[in-house]
Structure formats: structure tokens, C-alpha cells
Amino acid sequence: MANKEWPLYEVFIRSKQGLSHKHVGSLRAADEQMAIDNARDVYTRRSEGISIWVVESNSVFASDPNDADSLYEPSNSKVYRHPTFYDVPDGIEHM
Amino acid sequence: MKEHNIEVLERDFQAKIDNDIKIEPKDWMPDEYRQTLIRQISQHAHSEVVGMLPEGNWITRAPNLRRKAVLLAKVQDEAGHGLYLYSAAETLGADREQTIDDLHSGKAKYSSIFNYPTLSWADMGAVGWLVDGAAIMNQVPLCRCSYGPYARAMVRVCKEESFHQRQGFEIMTTLAQGTAEQKAMAQDALNRFWWPALMMFGPPDEDSKHTKQSMDWKIKRHTNDELRQMMVDITVPQAELIGLTIPDPDLKWNKEKGGYDFGEINWDEFWQVVKGNGPCNKDRIETRRKAKENGAWVREAANAFAEKRKLRNTKKAS
Ligand SMILES: [Fe+2]
Ligand SMILES: [Fe+2]
After folding, report:
1. Over 70: is that where the pLDDT of A2 sits?
2. ipTM of the prediction
3. Tell me, which fold does domain A8-81 have in CATH?
4. Is B302 at the interface with chain A, CB within 8 A?
5. Residue B56 Cα to ligand 1 middle (Å)
6. pLDDT tens-digit series, residues B250-298
7. Does the beta carbon of B83 lie under 8 angstroms from any beta carbon of chain A?
8. Every domain of chain A and the residues it spans
9. Which residues fall within 8 angstroms of residue A92, CB to CB, at 6 or more apart?
């Protein structure tokens, strides 16, 4: 039992009210509660956070870097999704 | 066809590196790049963890509560650094347990500086000032390392390190301005730690077989000798300012190169310590092994408690 490897958790911290949780690193723990306690000790020693999420790393399903072209390429050609694509006559303000 | 494929992959990989695009865990990378990083990151992690021992030695004997709180906080930071780094090594596929077992069996190395004893309170000053100083010199360029998780870990580490060096220098300054005996204590600590601190940057460039490849991969940004020179140039004026003497009769400002010339480093001593024959090698590993053994019941209890909590939660849910 002592050698049972603890699962890996990904740690997300909200640095202050109004901001989203951001990934800060990972750690191993026996369960979620211990992961939260350890995350507090390791990642918030200098008031870096006011809220912690931990997610077991196994539960994260990630996109494959090899699919990057097919996933993200189509949006590169759609420049009309950006405001800079459009001509605005001189003299027009607040647009 | 397959070989052609590898060539393309390798070329794309190097192109990313040349364009300062970070490599992330799931990206393709050459096996040697992965192995080099696993070795370097785990050695770095071990150094953080073993590095707690020489300072842990003085926590209970700090001269006052302020110094004790500071030293505790510093040592706790080092434990965190070890954790960030083990986690970074894991993103490359290193097995955490195996990595730690390799340290305990003597297979894996750690920084040779931690095989020197800390004999007096002044050593806490010298370690913070010189050892953390040298570590910072090494780690700041690593914040731009090509491997994302390592670089990000280094950013955190560097933020935390800056107080480590300052608290050490503060101890040295206080002792240097104290009684004659206190000043002698500070000088003695400097005498013992100066050369080992310069050795922390590793063997001279001509003997450092991995440097060229590591620099092409942007794992390393400066050679060992470049970093060592920077360390000397920055530290000498600091010693002068607090009235301590660098223990090197050959130390001399060289106007042409805009840096100090300094004496020959005893590389025999360095290799002896690396090979396990330093003053504290056996002691350090023994302490680590015992810590793991003696902590076994805590990990068992944590497992049992986690099981119990899970059971309780499923009962509540049903
Ligand atoms: Fe550190
Ligand atoms: Fe440090």
C-alpha cells in the first residue's frame, strides 16, 4: 500500500476575484482533498491565489499537436472575423 | 520512407527551436532531447531536495526568531522547487518513484555543493549569498529554455529565489559588521564556500561534452565558463562592500576583458566530490533514504484516509 503511486493532479489557481483559474503546475496526492491542501502549500505561499481547482491529470483529454493544421488552419483564412478587415470612412468616430 | 520522416521531424523540430517556439510535452522531440532534459531536470530536482539538508541543519539553532522564520521559509521554498521540477520531468515521461530511487541508489547526481558541511551559522549566510547566488545565475537563463514546462518552472523558481540570496547576504553583512569573532566567522564561511560555489557551474567549457548540443537545443544559453565569469564579476564588489576578502590571491581586475581574472579551480576536488567522495555524500543520501523509509507510514495513513473519505462520500451520495 505504501508503494501505491498517488495520482497526478493538475492545479489551477484563481489569483483574484474576477479572473479565471489558470493552470500553474501539477502534483501528486492520495486524493482530491490532499491535492488541494498540497496545492495551497506549494502554489499559494505568496498570496498567489484565492481559489484552487485540482483535476486528476488522467481526466484531461487534450488535442493532438499533429492535428494542429486541420484544427486551427481554417480560422487563419477568415480574416473578416477581425475588425481590422473593414474599411471605415475618414471622419467616422466611435466605431 | 520512415527515415525520411524522421529527418523531416527533426528539421521541423530544430526550426521551431531556432524560431524560439517552445516545445510542449505532446510535441514530437528527438529522443536525445528528451533524455537530456530528463537527466538535467531530475538532477536539478534532486539538488533542490538535497539542498534542504545543509540548511535544515541550522533551523533549530538560528540565532533568533526572525532568522529562524526566514530560514524555514527558504527551506520550504526549496522543497517546492523540487516538486515543480519533478513534475516537469514527469511531463517527459520520467517516472517519479524511479527518479527518486535513482537518487537514493546513487545512480543520479545532484549539485556537488551540497556535499559540503555547514559548520557554523555564518554558513547560512554564505550558502544564501553564494550558493543561491550561483543557482540564480544558472536559473535565470533557464527561464528561456526551449522546453515549456521547464521554462515555466524556472520562472516560478526565480521569483522565489531572489529573497534567498538577499537573506544570506544580510546574514553575512550583519556578521561582517559585528564583533571581530563574528567577522572572522563570516570570513571563514566565505573561505570554505567560495571555490565550491564557483564549481557549481560545472567543468570548464573544454571538458563539458554536452554544452554544444544543449546550446543548439536552447536548453542552455550560456557556457559554464561564461556563467562562472559573471558570478565572479558580480560577487567580488559585494564582498568588498562588506569588508570580506575573496580567498583567491590571483584575483585581479582585467581592464581589457572588463572582468576579473581569477585563480585555478581545483577540478580534482570537484571530480572527487562528484564521484561520491566529498565530505558529506554518504550522509546526504543516507538522510534522504531514511526520510523516505521513516515517512512510509505517513503515506500509508494518507492512503487509508483517502480510501475512508471516498467510502464516506459514496455513502453520502447514495
Ligand atoms: Fe531553489
Ligand atoms: Fe534557493
Report:
1. no
2. 0.88
3. Ubiquitin-like (UB roll) (3.10.20)
4. yes
5. 14
6. 999 999 999 999 999 999 999 999 999 999 999 999 999 999 999 999 9
7. yes
8. 8-81
9. none
